Amino acid sequence: MKNVMVTGGAGFIGSNFIHHLLKVEPGVQVINLDALTYGQFGKPQEMFQMTRTTPLFRRYLQHGIRR
Question: pTM of the prediction?
């Protein structure tokens, strides 16, 4: 199984790329890393419902991020 990390996967381009990737690569596991700073991601639950996708949002990772 392949693992792919997509940064900005909650945005327009990133989310469409993830949908496409899941269609064309049946054995891929996607890790979606997004800060949710820009854009209008109206349905964050969609990312949690996608199969083979692990969403990681900055607000949940802040304790482990060093700047």
Answer: 0.65
Going by C-alpha positions, the residue among 16, 14, 10 that lies closest to residue 41 is 10
DSSP secondary structure letters along 1-66: -EEEEEETTTSHHHHHHHHHHHHH-TTEEEEEEE---SS----THHHHHSTTEEEEEHHHHGGG--
CATH topology of domain 2-64: Rossmann fold (3.40.50)
Summarised one tens digit per residue, pLDDT across range 48-59 is 566 566 666 655
pLDDT value at residue 39:
58
